[in-house]
Specification:
Strand content: under 5%
Mean pLDDT: 85
Radius of gyration: 21 Å
Oligomer: single chain
Low-confidence stretches: 1-9
Largest sheet: 3 strands, mixed
CATH topology: Rhopdopsin 7-helix transmembrane proteins
Shape: globular
CATH class: Mainly Alpha
Number of helices: 10
C-alpha cells in the first residue's frame, strides 16, 4: 500500500473500458475515432472560421471560440486513451497518468459549465438590453467572464486532485470504466475517502446550482421580454438567436444531471459508461455542429474555405 503519492510512479491501474464486449472492440474503435475526427475538425474549424470572418468578430462568437477550444481539449484528454484501450491488450494506466487525466478533465468540465452560463448572460443582455449591449458586454467584462471560467475550473481541479493525492492506493487496481474520473479513483483507494467525497459533492452541487441559476434566470427574463414583442415573426427571430445555445445547454446539463442521479451500483455500470461516453466524447462533437448548422454566416465561411483549399490543390 502506498501513501500520499510515495513511489506513485510504480502504481498502475487497469482501465477495463468496454473489454467485457470483445466482439465490439473494432466497431467501437471505428465509431469513437470517427467522432473524435469530427470533434477535432469541427472545433478547430469553428475557431478558424471565427478568426478569418470579420463578421463573426462579435461577443457571442468570442465566447463560442473559447467553448470550441475547451471542447477540443476536453475530448483530446479522454478519447486517445479510450481508442488505445480498444486495440491493445495492455489496458494499464500509471497512477500519475490517471491523476493527470482527471485533473485536466475536471478543469475543462467545470470551465465549460461556467462558459455556457456566461453565454446565457450574454444572450440575456442582447435580448433584454439591446441598446446597452455593447456598453454592458465590454471587452473587460467578457475577458473576466472567460478568464473566471478557466480560473475556477483550475481551482476546482487542483483542489480535488490534491485531496486524491492524500489517499492511499494499492499497487494494482482495476477501474471499471474508460476514464479516470473522481468516483472510480476513490473506488480503488485503500483509505477512507469520506472527506474528498464530500468535497467533490459540494463542488459539483455548487457548480451545477450556481450555473443553472444564472442560465434559468437569464432565459426566464428573455422569455418575458420576447413575449412582449407584438409580432410573431419578431418573437421567432429573437428566439432563434438563443436556440443553438439552449440546445447545447440542454444536452450538457441534462447529461450531467443524469450521471449525478444514477446510483453507483454494478447494475448501472453500463449506463454510467454510456452516459460518460456521451458526456466526454459525444458532446464536444455536437457543440460545433449545433452552432454551425443553424448559422448561415458560419456555413458560408466554411464553404469558402473548402473551395479555396480545393482550388489550391487543383492549381
Amino acid at each position: 500500500m502506498l501513501s500520499e503519492g510515495n513511489q506513485s510512479s510504480i502504481l498502475t491501474f487497469i482501465l477495463l473500458g468496454f473489454s467485457e464486449y470483445p466482439e465490439y472492440q473494432i466497431l467501437l474503435f471505428l465509431v469513437f475515432s470517427s467522432i473524435y475526427t469530427v470533434t477535432v475538425v469541427g472545433n478547430l474549424g469553428m475557431i478558424i472560421i471565427i478568426k478569418v470572418n470579420s463578421k463573426l468578430h462579435t461577443i457571442m462568437y468570442f465566447f463560442l471560440s473559447h467553448l470550441s477550444f475547451v471542447d477540443f481539449c476536453y475530448s483530446t484528454v479522454v478519447t486517445p486513451k479510450l481508442l488505445e484501450n480498444l486495440v491493445v491488450e495492455d489496458r494499464t494506466i500509471s497512477f500519475s497518468g490517471c491523476i493527470t487525466q482527471f485533473c485536466f478533465t475536471c478543469s475543462f468540465a467545470v470551465t465549460e459549465t461556467f462558459m455556457l452560463a456566461a453565454m446565457a448572460y450574454d444572450r440575456f443582455v442582447a435580448v433584454c438590453n439591446p441598446l446597452l449591449y455593447t456598453t454592458i458586454m465590454s471587452q473587460k467584462l467578457c475577458a473576466l467572464l472567460v478568464g473566471g471560467s478557466y480560473t475556477w475550473g483550475v481551482v476546482c481541479s487542483l483542489t480535488l486532485t490534491y485531496f486524491l493525492l492524500t489517499l492511499s492506493y494499492c499497487k494494482s487496481s482495476i477501474i471499471n470504466n474508460f476514464i479516470c474520473d473522481h468516483s472510480v479513483i476513490i473506488s480503488v483507494s485503500c483509505s477512507d475517502p469520506y472527506i474528498t467525497q464530500m468535497l467533490c459533492f459540494i463542488i459539483v452541487v455548487f457548480n451545477e446550482v450556481s450555473s443553472l441559476m444564472i442560465i434559468l434566470m437569464s432565459y426566464i427574463l428573455i422569455f418575458i421580454t420576447v413575449m412582449k414583442i407584438p409580432s410573431a415573426s419578431g418573437r421567432q427571430n429573437t428566439f432563434s438567436t438563443c436556440a443553438s445555445h439552449l440546445t447545447a445547454i440542454t444536452i450538457f446539463h441534462g447529461t450531467v444531471l443524469f450521471l449525478f442521479c444514477v446510483p453507483n451500483a454494478k447494475t448501472s455500470q453500463l449506463i454510467i459508461k454510456v452516459a460518460s461516453v456521451f458526456y466526454t466524447v459525444v458532446i464536444p462533437m455536437l457543440n460545433p455542429l449545433i452552432y454551425s448548422l443553424r448559422n448561415k454566416e458560419v456555413k458560408n465561411t466554411f464553404k469558402k474555405l473548402v473551395v479555396a483549399k480545393l482550388l489550391c490543390y487543383l492549381i
